[in-house]
Amino acid sequence: MARKYEGFMKGVFFLSAIVSIVALILIIVFMFAGGVPFMLEYGLGDFLLGQKWTPSNTPASFGILPMILGSIFVTIGAVVIGVPIGVLTSIFMAEFCPPKLYKWLKPAVNLMAAIPSVVYGFFALQLIVPIMRNFVGGTGMNMLTAMILLGIMILPTVIGLSESALRAVPRSYYNGGVALGSTHERTVMAVLVPAAKSGIISSVILGIGRAIGETMAVVLIAGNQPIMPRGLTFGVRTLTTNIVLEMAYAAGEHREALIATAVVLFAFILIINSIFLYVKNKEAK
Amino acid sequence: MNQTKMTIRDLNLWYGDFQALHGMDLEIPENEVTAFIGPSGCGKSTFIKTLNRMNDLVQGCRIEGNVQLDGENIYSHRYDVNNLRKRVGMVFQQPNPFPKSIYDNIAYGPRTHGIRDKQQLDQIVEESLKKAAIWDEVKDHLDRNALSISGGQQQRICIARALAIQPEVLLMDEPTSALDPISTAKIEELVTQLKEDYTIVMVTHNMQQASRVSDKTAFFLNGYIVEHGDTRKIFTNPEHEQTENYISGRFG
Residue A172: which of B86, B96, B100 has the nearest Cβ? Predict the structure, then answer.
């Protein structure tokens, strides 16, 4: 009886594990089946490096270079803005924060991670866009706006993971530092932070993944013009927003081109995750 | 008879409501090895940490009394704790080199205290490693991660790291308890050499070690110093019955 029950439970666990893998495989199969034939037919070079995205013209052009660059630039900007703030916040939270403040700060950061992205988009539309409009003119919906917003949105990822990386550093390193007459500040910055380096880098990589995949917040504030990025104060369209903006009415080749866009996005995420795993493994070693 | 380097007067210490040390009185003579012995939980590790104020880091730890270094009370609120720890170095029970190169481990202290000149740092690193009797083993790979060498070598790296800031007193909290007999012998030999230049205070579980390397011994029990004096006397002719029982292995 007990053995039968164990066997049954084993099956349950196995099935649960299978579900997520099957889901992943289905996603990959669906995306590649929908997108790859188009890429080959249209020409991989023309698709990836084409600078024109004009799906309603005859003949239509499906070059997604503007969106690839848009995604990359916006992500870089988000990292430049979000990572220093996030890492410094995590150092503060792990080593400098008075417990009374920590009691509020920690749940606040967790809450940031739970806010739906469209709400972030609204927040940016209400606050950052008008400020942008005042300072740089235009609609206020531009690349810089998207960078600032994404910089804020990656904060919980960067802060949370960096903080746990810092807390995982053995306390004996800290004791060794202060026992040499090194101040708390110097010990934290010169011993603990370098010791947590790979964990902090992992947090940055996951933050990059979050930024590049973000859609709903970006679509509200980035301007979304499908043209080559011209500068910080001009509108920009990313890979994700390209899909969400047009999928509703796209058909035929246009639809396939959007699925192919998703394939490219997937490739980006795959690369980012591989780097993440590589860094993690190096840390384990 | 050497001069007194540190003087402890009526030192009491509490962790929260628990009193861990009771009315400690002790002199630590310069250029000698003072050993603290006693069963686990008797307060010897707690006591050694009061000498460079590492107990400041323990939450709920409260101290009354007086610890003097060259006649100055280190618990006076004007006393600079970082300067204290520069003068009173420490080696821990578990070797705890930083996850950095051997070179950067040794150079950490001098850099902390303002030495930036590369040549001067090179010289300090070499001297410190030589003093810690590990130079010959590591001189060809100073850029190697200090965590990649053996535990015994790591502990000598930690000793070299402590020596690099030229302390006057060196506290060693069971420095060999995590090491094999050969590494232990090396560190014991090292300790007897180091006392030429430094005042050494050492906690040990190992009574043979105390009798081999120390000049003075203090026997701790339940947060009290039961007896202290010349090591030879403590080990051959102790005044207290408890000391004798502990040394002869009847408990502890």
Answer: B96
Asked if B98 lies within 8 A of A176 by C-beta distance, the reply is yes
- By CA distance, what is B57's nearest residue in A? A175
Query: How high is the pLDDT of residue A184?
Result: 96
d(CA A236, CA A218): 10
**For chain B, which domains are there?**
4-92+167-247 (3.40.50.300)
Question: How far B193 CA lies from chain A's nearest CA (Å)?
Answer: 21
Cβ neighbours, 10 Å, residue A277 = 12
Nearest to A180 among B57, B99, B161 (CB): B161
Contacts of B169 in chain A (CB under 8 A): none
Q: What is the share, in percent, of chain B residues with pLDDT greater than 70?
A: 99
Chain B residues whose CB is inside 8 A of the A200 CB are: none
Spatial separation of the C-alpha atoms in residues B126 and B132, rounded to whole Å? 10
How many angstroms separate the CA atoms of A82 and A62, rounded?
32
Q: How far is CA A233 from CA A144, A147, A200, B247, in A?
A: 6, 11, 31, 80
Mean pLDDT of chain A: 93
Task: Calculate how close chain B gets to A273, using CA atoms only, in Å.
Answer: 26
With beta carbons less than 8 A apart as the criterion, state whether A273 and A209 touch: yes
Token pair, residue A251, equals 């058909």
Secondary structure (DSSP) of B195-208: TTTSEEEEE-S-HH
Whole-prediction pTM = 0.88
Where do the structural domains in chain A lie, given as residue ranges? Answer: 61-284
Query: A53 has which bridge partners?
Result: A62
Topology annotation, domain A61-284: MetI-like fold (1.10.3720)
